[in-house]
Design a protein that fits this description.
808 residues, alpha/beta, nine-stranded mixed beta sheet, seven-stranded mixed beta sheet, 29% helix
């Protein structure tokens, strides 16, 4: 794969300002599509595509346009050895900024079907990654599916791409991520599920950078004081002409002041009616005719940046709107970006008359292209993140193997040594990240393999991506987060990506295992988090740690799933948290966290929804708002057959709607909390519906008593023992007869002498009872043969009355 190029396709590309960042990063452009040819020509001037046929002017909804793009992809497959495009970038127009069921008009929603076309193009082209950028309300805006159904754009993403791609969206102000001007937009990044275990779309988001003042961005440029003045060394640094009667409106303004603030009526914006009457303009938005401020971040650049009457367009010192060059700097467009076939030296050498003629013809189009664009540096950073990941995959496995193969050292020491050996120090003493994120993640995964005995599991990237889609936006300058069972901290880089927009992000990381905390600390240092992020590390038992003086915006994590049997410890926890039924650490983690946080989000065993030991905990949570339940089935942890959910609780609100998502079945439904969690049923039934209720009304309950063994473990098993211990896997889905696992190699067996000491022995010779697997997507029942007993994955049902159970 070393010599195969990284490639991209750009849809709705305009002048190619944003996706030029992929070009800068070294990606090869297979095709770029734009419906306005004069804008596509600007991309030609910048030599975006290697082939002329890659510049495709046309309507993306037309088969002809799609075929031209497909032809280019096929050429690259046949001649350059690519298997698929690396990235598809799309910035489709999104006309109706209204959420579903609150639309402006049907035409707006119909035009938003261009988003559907983009999603269909993703499925046609099958890139490894896709990137969308759009307005802040993008994902909640209405669009029309092919069947005519009106849904949110987010729902359209799930329906069209959900089976094949993992995606994550967030609303970012790009000024915090490398843009030199304020620009709040939605960024959506998707990853093919072929790669989802190795890279999360969250990791591809740009990292936070320090904000830059307007003076630091454009203050070095010479002033322009004369109407129509063109800097002789830069044609794009010029004084845009406007009617001279407007000059008094702005000439006396100080930084931050508006023409509407003038006390002299002649200096406030006005217009003349058809009958010659002068009428003052209305100050509707508060940002028109306002002089900008040197020591603030540059304002958002809009499409009508050529007008004084537009938003935040007036220079902090000169009586004019920003020049094209200033706008380019604010939008991080590189100096060598070409707006014409002629280079800058040739344009600057023209006569003043020809310069004015050129600007008269081209300036409005250039300015509109800039106003519509994605800041180049934002897409450049995304491109670099993708490139680093793709390059790293060739070396990560070898790096990890080398860690394990080292002799005479414990694995923890090997990992620490590897991290320390690869940390570099720059000339000014700063640490330089020389280990790629993929390797850091693999180290975290490897370190967590040591923690299985503590019922602590590595939370994989795919799982984290689903979780982080549900986490709340926290509107606070200082955000305080707790991870109470942090392990090697694979949650932490994701939390930093999501919440580093705050001026201060403080993360308290607690774990009972000091050895993995050492690795975690080194990993976090290797990640080089932004300066506004502070991580406090504490080696302690969370349930014994006093955090009463603190309050958190969010407590999140993957607590240990360990039962606490009768002991002083269990009595203490039950007393501390006023829960006489709980006997699992996970329940106590939830109950403690809800006392000290606005939001609590935990990965939990799915039996939390129904087991009796969690019933008091569920009752407490019911009094708060359950925001989301994400059902992972058995897909939460690779190689571990335990069904898990992610539960997000808002402790400051009560009741409402719950978003329920099933990952295995690709289901997303909104349920009423009272309906699925209320006292009418003894358990939480997250998929409850009218069909369930109808069945419920027709059934008779209390027919069986239930016994479930909790003492038989895998470690007790002895080959060639006489008694076959039935696991859920021994019961086939058709429920006809018991089957052996792996020809018997995967079966559990025990001697009768051992079983005599266990409660389940009472049922060993009974054949009038039934076996049912616990917590399965495939409910099934089988009559128990004499001479076998089940372990804890199977319940025994004992009829309370004389009943007949048919094979069906």
């Amino acid at each position: 794969m070393k010599n195969i190029p990284l490639t991209y396709i750009s849809l709705f590309s305009s002048a190619g300002v944003g996706c030029y960042g992929f070009h800068q990063a070294g990606f090869k452009c297979i095709a770029t599509n734009e419906i306005i040819n004069r804008r596509l020509n600007i991309q030609r001037y910048n030599h975006k595509c290697e082939r002329e046929s890659g510049y495709i002017c046309g309507d993306i909804t037309q088969k002809k346009t799609k075929d031209l793009i497909a032809n280019e992809v096929n050429w690259w497959k046949n001649n350059k050895g690519i298997q698929e495009p690396t990235v598809v970038v799309a910035t489709p127009p999104c006309q109706g900024m209204s959420v579903v069921n609150h639309k402006k008009n049907d035409k707006d929603i119909e035009r938003n079907s261009l988003v559907i076309e983009s999603l269909k193009m993703i499925m046609m082209l099958r890139p490894l990654f896709f990137v969308f950028e759009n307005v802040p309300a993008f994902m909640d805006t209405a669009c029309v599916m092919e069947n005519g159904e009106v849904v949110s754009i987010r729902e359209a993403h799930h329906r069209i791409l959900g089976n094949d791609y993992l995606f994550y969206d967030d609303v970012l102000n790009f000024k915090l991520y490398g843009s030199k001007s304020s620009r709040t937009r939605t960024l959506v990044i998707g990853v093919s599920k072929k790669l989802a275990r190795f890279i999360s779309p969250i990791e591809l988001f740009p990292d936070r950078e320090s904000e830059t003042t307007l003076f630091n961005v454009i203050g070095h440029l010479p002033p322009l004081t004369e109407m129509g003045e063109i800097n002789p060394f830069d044609i794009y640094h010029s004084f845009r002409v406007y009617p001279e009667y407007m000059l008094p409106w702005i000439s006396g303004l100080g930084e931050g002041e508006s023409a509407f603030d003038n006390t002299d009526a002649d200096k406030r914006p006005y217009k003349f009616t058809k009958d010659g009457k002068r009428v003052e303009n209305a100050n509707k938005t508060g940002d028109k005719y306002r002089r900008q401020v040197w020591n603030h971040v540059a304002p958002s650049v809009h499409t009508r940046n050529d007008q004084l009457a537009s938003q935040n367009t007036i220079h902090p010192r000169d009586n004019r709107v920003f020049s094209i060059r200033e706008l380019m700097l604010m939008m991080t467009i590189p100096d060598d970006f070409k707006w014409d076939s002629k280079d800058l030296l040739t344009l600057n050498a023209m006569s003043p008359e020809k310069k004015r003629s050129f600007l008269k013809k081209e300036e409005t189009n250039i300015r509109q292209c800039i106003g519509e664009a994605v800041p180049t540096h934002i897409f450049y950073k995304v491109a670099v993140n993708i490139m680093r990941f793709m390059e790293s995959q060739r070396i990560v496995d070898q790096q990890i193997r080398n860690i394990i193969k080292k002799k005479n050292l414990q694995i923890t020491d090997n990992l620490l040594n590897f991290i320390n050996e690869n940390i570099k120090i720059g000339e000014n003493g700063q640490r330089i990240q020389s280990i790629n994120n993929a390797t850091l993640s693999r180290i975290s995964e490897l370190a967590n393999t040591l923690r299985i005995d503590n019922a602590a599991y590595y939370t994989e990237k795919e799982t984290l991506t689903y979780i982080f889609e549900h986490l709340p936006y926290i509107d606070s300058e200082s955000i305080h987060i707790l991870e109470p069972s942090v392990g090697t901290g694979n949650f932490i880089p994701f939390l930093v990506k999501k919440y580093s927009y705050a001026k201060e992000l403080i993360i308290d990381a607690i774990d009972i295992d000091g050895s993995v905390l050492k690795i975690a600390e080194q990993l976090w240092q290797a990640h080089l988090f932004p300066e506004n992020v502070k991580i406090n590390i504490l080696c302690a038992d969370y349930l014994e740690t006093d955090i009463s003086a603190k309050h958190y915006n969010l407590v999140i994590g993957n607590p240990p799933y360990i039962k606490v049997y009768a002991s002083r410890r269990l009595e203490k926890y039950r007393k501390d948290f006023e829960d006489d039924l709980a006997n699992n650490l996970a329940a106590f983690f939830i109950e403690k966290s809800c006392m000290y946080a606005d939001y609590v989000g935990f990965i939990l065993p799915k039996n939390f929804l129904c087991n009796i030991e969690y019933s008091a905990c569920r009752a407490k949570l019911y009094k708060k708002r359950i925001e989301s339940v994400v059902d992972f089935g058995e897909h939460g942890f690779s190689g571990i057959n335990i069904e898990t959910i992610f539960l997000l609780v808002n402790t400051n609100r009560k009741g409402g709607n719950v978003l329920v998502e099933s990952i295995p079945r690709s289901i997303r439904i909104v349920q009423n909390q009272r309906y699925i969690c209320g006292a009418a049923l003894p358990t939480w039934v997250i998929y409850r519906d009218s069909a369930f209720d109808k069945t419920l009304s027709e059934k008779r309950f209390g027919v069986f008593d239930v016994y479930r063994d909790r003492q038989i473990t895998k470690s007790m098993s002895v080959k060639r023992s006489t008694v076959w211990i039935i696991k859920s896997k021994n019961i086939p889905r058709d429920g006809k007869s018991l089957v052996h696992i792996d020809g018997g190699k995967g079966d559990l067996r025990l001697n009768r002498s051992v079983l005599k000491n266990l409660g389940v022995y009472e049922y060993i010779d009974r054949d009038d009872v039934f076996l049912v697997p616990n917590m399965t997507y495939y409910p099934r029942m089988i009559k128990k043969p004499s001479g076998v007993v089940p372990n804890g994955s199977v319940a025994i049902l004992i009829p309370k009355e004389a009943i007949t159970v048919s094979d069906q």
